[in-house]
Write a structure and sequence with these properties.
Blueprint lengths: L18 H13 L12 E5 L2 E4 L4 E4 L2 H4 L8 H13 L11 H13 L6 E6 L2 H16 L3 E5 L8 H6 L17 E4 L11 H20 L4 E6 L15 H12 L2 E5 L23 E4 L10 E6 H4 L15 H16 L2 H22 L3 E7 L2 E6 L8 H13 L2 E2 L1 E3 L5 E4 L7 H17 L1
Parallel strand pairs: 3-13, 5-6, 5-7, 7-8, 8-9
Antiparallel strand pairs: 1-2, 2-3, 4-10, 9-10, 11-12, 12-15, 14-15
Helix pairs in contact: 3-10, 4-10, 7-8, 11-13, 12-13
Length: 444
Amino acid sequence: MAVTEVAQSRRVVTEIPGPKSRELQERRVAAVAKGVGSVLPVYVTRAGGGIVEDVDGNALIDFGSGIAVTNVGNADPRVVERSAEQLGRFTHTCFMVNPYEAYVEVCEALNRITPGDHEKRSILLNSGAEAVENAVKIARSATGRQAVVVFDHAYHGRTNLTMGLTAKNMPYKQGFGPFAGEIHRMPMAYAYRWPTGPENCGPEAAAMVTDQITKQIGAENVAAVVIEPIQGEGGFIEPAPGFLPAIVEFCRANGIVFVADEVQTGFARTGDMFACEHEGVVPDLITTAKGIAGGLPLAAVTGRAELMDAVHGGGLGGTYGGNPTACAAALASLEAIESDDLVGRAREIGDLMLGRLRKLAEEHAIIGDVRGRGAMIAIELVKDDKTPDPESLGRILSYCHSRGLVLLSAGTYGNVIRMLPPLVIGDDLLNEGLDILAEAFDRL
């Protein structure tokens, strides 16, 4: 693995946030729109490996990875070198005006590594939301249909269409409607909360979804089913076994495009290159972003050639889509993932974290569920009757932040701790972070 110049040790020298971060926060309040939030307002100067350093000299353990973006670590030297080289040659031409090789190389790589051995095509874009929106456009164009099926607890983005696809109202949708039409929401195979028990969840949820699509929409009217193979913002909900393959089978039988939203789960994050590979699912279209380019903004839609090529010339694109510097970063990032076996490293991280967290759950009844795969792990906090407990979540995060551990929240009910450490983090930092989390539960 590449060596970072950032020392891989936690260091807390001021209260968190420290005085310099608080000064910057005052400037931010006066300059930045209130609607832009921050989980932990410590202002960063450097980051690398599993550490984020702030303006006050604190070094925090990173269990967030910029929300699953810096999978290969922050400022990976290969990403930096290749990006800097590209910056020195040219910064922009617009691929739709004067194309360049790096865009083609990234598409070739995506066509190679995404699931399935069928002929594929790709397009490059700027963000996960833009990728999902384009996947819907492609599915509608290819099928001549309009309806789109999505699921409870889903998160797909902040554009008008993707807000409509997203399940959670606050803070993502409140006050921003009306949203795009022909969007239909179905039950999710949420094993922990399934009424008849987790062992029945997969087949029962699949039967319920296919029945509702058939009766309420008409399968012949559905252009696409869009789903996260593990739901992100919804609380790292892993569909119960058998659910995804059953939905894919239904889509195949009815000419529906199956879209896997792998924006958060992609690029080795879950211990497979893509989360849908866990049950052998081969999507028709797959959307990617976040971990694709080592921290630079890039996204993609990759899919079956006959679907991707169904759109008329000029119907897909965007001024900044496939920015040359982001493409260079993506090529370096993909090289790092494969050469450093970060798929295998994600599995090691998952084994370590799940083992410790399941023991923690035995000691604390407030932990209702520990779940996830690879380096995408969650804890759901509940009261005795599985009632969500967001208040305790806030207290735990506050303690961990004060001790120099970056943690994120998630979940439709605001009661899930989500952990997304960089795939290059060392076991010592992982264990130290989990020690802090255990202290937080003991103090609670």
